[in-house]
Design goal:
Elements lengths: L1 H13 L1 H22 L13 H12 L6 E8 L8 H12 L4 E4 L15 E8 L6 H8 L9 E5 L1 H5 L7 H18 L2 H26 L8 H28 L4 H28 L7 H32 L13 H17 L1 H16 L20 H13 L7 E6 L2 H15 L4 E4 L3 E2 L5 E8 L6 H19 L6 E4 L1 H35 L3 H26 L4 H4 L10 H31 L2 H29 L6 H33 L8 H6 L10
Antiparallel strand pairs: 1-3, 1-4, 2-3, 5-8, 5-9, 6-8, 7-8
Length: 700
């Protein structure tokens, strides 16, 4: 590691223009090419051994499907729609004339597409080669029936993929808000622009690389925006720490010496912090779920590019700027006053460390409690923004056909005389189940190899009753497989796929947490030459993450944030806990590394733990607060994207950073380190000989 930073330092000092030109050349070669190539993102919940996956394979291999139902068009009227067949068919004909529309079914020719009260009718819209062109969707949504007050609503995957905030809007909001924080922090326009320029450069290159990745690897649709969110957050923070240390050293040292010190201290912390974030993210591979691989790689690419830009491009810019870093100063509060406030706070913690630690833990425990009520599942269209076409369509269908109509389950078995008998017996049993609204008669596939029966539930896909029914049906099917007949019946459909996905991730979460905690603790042990600090850091991060999960539950599952965002309450996406844990464990370690690195620096100088903790907090409190504020505004900007998945991540990340920077790093960590005394730095001699040294070589 020391050699790596030494090489970067020498390049930045001796050939700054070459370093800057190289980064800009990479950007110019990758981003335009990637944009011309276009992305190929794909969200697929791939669990090979699950019930739903086997069912899906049976359907796809035995039923020819050249098209996929992309949109559901819902006609709603206060009058009998059977009297308006001509009007509806005329609208369907108009829809067929829209470029990109392949076919539209007629509710009058499709059994079960008109509600029992005859006031709601449903048509299935298929787009040419899954054409999710926004103009096609807009043209469909502009269809109107002028007579008899008939409303038209749409829902479906195509609608989701062409609505929401335009790409780049959230990024621009985040950058604008971050610039304001940086201006207040540095008091100089030039200094404030350095982290912005570095982060934007890294964002452009990582975006291009993620697009290239999507052509060779399964990358979920939300991955690029999540990578942008994380990349901007860590990029601005990493650059902030390096520029802040450079400005401080520049007061009494030369430009070269100031950059050297900034890289040896803040640069080392950036390298370790970025490494821990990547370890946590790449640890998702240990779960062995393909869906998570693309998420892990795309976010890791964003962090790595950001980290490298902060350690090379940024120092090269600082070499050229030198003391001009303070140009275009603006009125600001005194830095001495800020340091004085943090110094006073560090003294208060030193006087009552145990009492403050107890109060902090009490607050964190209260925030963690809602996590115990978390319900995992995929939110249906009832959780979409109030007044949106998809929510109106879902509510209309649910009221007219029943809550489970939009996501029926399929009972599938391989065709045989005994399997037909077993399936019929199961259907008779399920008809008496209160959770079941209706079951269709078993139908053979066109090739006669499989038999399918459709089950409609009384509950919506996101309700707990649906999960309870799936649990029950899985138990029944397991008993059938273990019986003398031994027939295989599988449950298919989107709801079982998401249920299986959620169940699988929940089982694998403890093992994943263990892997990430163990690897990051070893890394921290190498960095700080201590046993207690890594253990404390891991526990603090786990508490912080659980508290942020609690806030996510309160906001989305309990619905406390729904009035602000205009969405309905619903379950938490099944992949959120494991991905959010990976992100938060890495990001929370950032502040742990920056704070404790400075405390360790003071400890090595004075060997006085009480003084080292006080000085470390006093010198980093303001910078960590500014860094946290930047992350919070970045993550908050993504809450208003209109994409519920990104909103979940935005709230989870923003709340975790807020908790981490205020309660954890500003109170609990220094209070515990004051209480532990010199034990903070204990490391057995035999272990010290095994661990690799991290002292940096002299930078020249």
């Amino acid at each position: 590691m020391s050699k790596f930073i030494a090489v970067i330092f020498n390049l930045s000092i001796n050939k700054p223009k070459t370093v800057i030109f190289s980064w800009l050349l990479i950007l110019l070669l990758t981003l335009p090419t990637a944009l011309l190539l276009g992305a190929k993102f794909n969200t697929e919940y791939d669990l090979p051994d699950s019930q739903s996956k086997i069912a899906m394979k049976l359907i796809s291999s035995n039923i020819s499907r050249t098209q996929v139902s992309d949109l559901t068009m819902v006609f709603s009227s206060s009058k009998d729609l059977s009297e308006n067949e001509e009007l509806l068919n005329q609208t369907i004909s108009e829809a067929l004339l829209i470029p990109g529309v392949e076919s539209v079914s007629s509710p009058y020719q499709t059994p079960g597409s008109i509600s029992p009260n005859k006031k709601v009718a449903i048509s299935t819209v298929m787009l040419s080669k899954n054409n999710y062109d926004k103009e096609t969707i807009i043209a469909l949504q502009n269809l109107k029936i002028s007579k008899d007050n008939i409303n038209i609503y749409f829902m479906g995957e195509a609608l989701k993929k062409t609505t929401g905030t335009k790409p780049g809007v959230s990024e621009m909001l985040a950058i604008s808000a971050a610039l304001l924080v940086l201006l207040i922090t540095f008091g100089s326009v030039v200094a404030a622009l350095m982290p912005i320029v570095t982060a934007v450069l890294a964002l452009g290159i990582s975006t291009a690389l993620i697009i290239f990745l999507s052509h060779n690897f399964p990358v979920a649709e939300f991955s690029p925006m999540l990578a942008d969110l994380v990349g901007l957050g860590v990029g601005l923070d990493y650059a902030l720490f390096i520029v802040s240390r450079f400005k401080k050293e520049l007061i009494n040292n030369s430009v070269k010496d100031s950059i050297a010190t900034a890289l040896k201290t803040s640069g080392r912390a950036v390298l370790f912090a970025g490494g821990i974030v990547c370890i946590a993210l790449l640890g998702l591979f240990s779960v062995k779920v393909k869906f998570l691989y693309g998420v892990a790689l795309s976010s890791s690419i964003s962090v790595i590019i950001t980290m490298l830009a902060s350690l090379s491009f940024l120092p090269a810019m600082l070499v050229l700027l030198g003391r001009n870093i303070n140009k275009l100063s603006i009125p600001k509060r005194s830095k001495k006053e800020e340091n004085h406030l943090w110094h006073k706070w560090s003294l208060k913690i030193a006087k009552r460390p145990r009492a403050l630690a107890f109060l902090s833990l009490l607050v964190l425990t209260l925030l963690c409690l809602p996590t115990s009520t978390i319900t995992l599942g995929s939110a249906d269209a009832s959780s979409d923004p109030v007044g949106s076409s998809s929510k109106m369509a879902f509510d209309t269908i649910s009221a007219a056909f029943g809550k489970g109509y939009t996501a029926p389950l399929q009972l599938i078995t391989v065709k045989s005389s005994s399997s037909d008998e077993v399936l019929r017996e199961l259907i008779i049993e399920l008809k008496n189940d209160l959770a079941v609204a209706s079951i269709s008669q078993p139908l053979d596939s066109p090739n006669g190899k499989i038999t399918i029966a459709s089950v409609t539930l009384n509950s919506s896909p996101q309700e707990k009753e649906t999960n309870r029914f799936l649990n029950k049906i899985y138990d029944k099917l397991s008993k059938i497989r273990d019986s003398d007949k031994g027939e295989q019946i599988y449950v298919g459909g989107l709801t079982p796929i998401l249920y299986d996905f959620s169940t699988s991730l929940t089982k694998k979460l403890p093992g994943f947490i263990l892997v990430v905690v163990l690897l990051s603790s070893i890394l921290l042990m190498i960095l700080f030459r201590s046993i207690l600090i890594p253990i404390k850091a891991a526990l603090m991060n786990l508490i912080s993450i659980l508290a942020s999960f609690g806030i996510v539950v309160i906001s989305f599952q309990w619905g406390w944030l729904t009035p602000l965002l205009g969405i309905g309450s619903g379950p938490i996406e099944p992949f959120l806990p494991i991905i959010l844990f990976a992100l938060l464990f890495g990001l929370s370690m950032d502040y742990e590394v920056f704070l404790v690195s400075r405390i360790q620096e003071e400890w090595l100088l004075c060997k006085d733990n009480e003084k080292a903790v006080r000085m470390g907090l006093a010198n980093t409190g303001g910078v960590i607060t500014a860094a946290a504020l930047i992350m919070i505004v970045v993550f908050t900007a993504f809450i208003f994207t209109g994409d519920r998945t990104i909103q979940l991540f935005g709230v989870g990340l923003a709340s975790a950073i807020l908790i981490d920077a205020t309660i954890i790093r500003s109170v609990l960590v220094p209070a515990l380190m004051q209480s532990f005394g010199d034990k903070n730095w204990y490391l057995p001699k035999w272990l010290g000989k095994i661990l690799p040294p991290v002292q940096l070589e002299k930078l020249e």
